[in-house]
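User: Let's play a game. I give you a shape written as tokens, and you guess the letters that built it. Ready? Here's round one.
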């Protein structure tokens, strides 16, 4: 089963209140967007990554030399398939990355990304949609989500049979653990919300390619307010699977989140090095033989 990825990165980061979009802020010399794309690029199951950029983006080319932003008239072929889709979207290739232009809203940017991939993707392929500003997502968590579409490596299967229940897809999410309050007048508590069955939606979110594409079109035409891709599928009467993820899969929204993300990435690196050292020690002592 072929999996594509769409990364909406056309936002201007107004809540961050900084001079450049938050996806281009740096952590240890690398932009948040670069760190996010590195995580997705490490996954062999993902064929191509469509990065959806603001048409006025002046930062992409600076941080990704040789991977020029798409223009409205030029396209580049991928595996013999023309990437240009018309309609002012544009499509360019840079290694595993492609770019296209986004819209005014997230749903429009995601739909533009899907439209730009439509000539390359089959209707029953899968698409992974991930926030540009979630650079700390763990590979293991993404693999848990991809298991909805991709069979385990040791299963002997080359594809996973898609059933009726699979068409809803799934998303990484976290059970709500904090006590939730609904605000009333003048910022006072109106009531405590029952959190028993509440989950906080994260990304990536994974859905059948053409199902998501058509559902986004239909929901937008109906005037539905869409906050993520799962909300579009819910509107269509489907019930995406909730796949638990680690709490460190944070979304960088405010200035203080940048410092937290740096600490998380450092901790993940130390954890990875420790695990690698343990494997080497076990192999040396014959435990893994």
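Assistant: Ready! My guess for every position:
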């Amino acid at each position: 089963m072929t999996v594509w990825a769409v990364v909406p990165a056309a936002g201007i980061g107004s809540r961050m209140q900084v001079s450049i979009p938050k996806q281009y802020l740096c952590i240890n010399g690398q932009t948040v967007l670069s760190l996010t794309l590195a995580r997705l690029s490490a996954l062999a199951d993902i064929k191509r990554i469509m990065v959806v950029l603001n048409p006025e983006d002046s930062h992409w080319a600076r941080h990704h030399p040789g991977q020029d932003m798409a223009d409205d008239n030029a396209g580049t072929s991928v595996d013999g398939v023309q990437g240009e889709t018309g309609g002012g979207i544009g499509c360019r290739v840079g290694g595993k990355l492609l770019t296209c232009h986004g819209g005014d809203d997230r749903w429009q940017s995601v739909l533009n990304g899907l439209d730009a991939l439509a000539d390359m993707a089959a209707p029953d392929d899968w698409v992974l949609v991930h926030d540009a500003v979630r650079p700390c997502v763990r590979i293991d968590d993404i693999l848990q989500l991809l298991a909805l579409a991709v069979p385990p490596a040791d299963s002997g299967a080359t594809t996973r049979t898609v059933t009726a229940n699979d068409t809803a897809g799934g998303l990484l999410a976290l059970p709500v653990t904090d006590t939730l309050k609904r605000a009333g007048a003048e910022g006072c508590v109106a009531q405590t919300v029952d959190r028993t069955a509440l989950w906080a939606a994260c990304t990536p979110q994974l859905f059948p390619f053409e199902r998501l594409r058509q559902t986004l079109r239909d929901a937008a035409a109906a005037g539905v307010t869409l906050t993520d891709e799962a909300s579009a599928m819910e509107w269509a009467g489907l019930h995406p699977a909730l796949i638990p993820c680690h709490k460190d899969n944070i979304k960088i929204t405010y200035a203080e989140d940048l410092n937290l993300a740096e600490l998380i990435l450092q901790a993940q690196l130390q954890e990875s090095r420790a695990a690698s050292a343990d494997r080497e020690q076990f192999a040396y002592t014959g435990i893994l033989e």
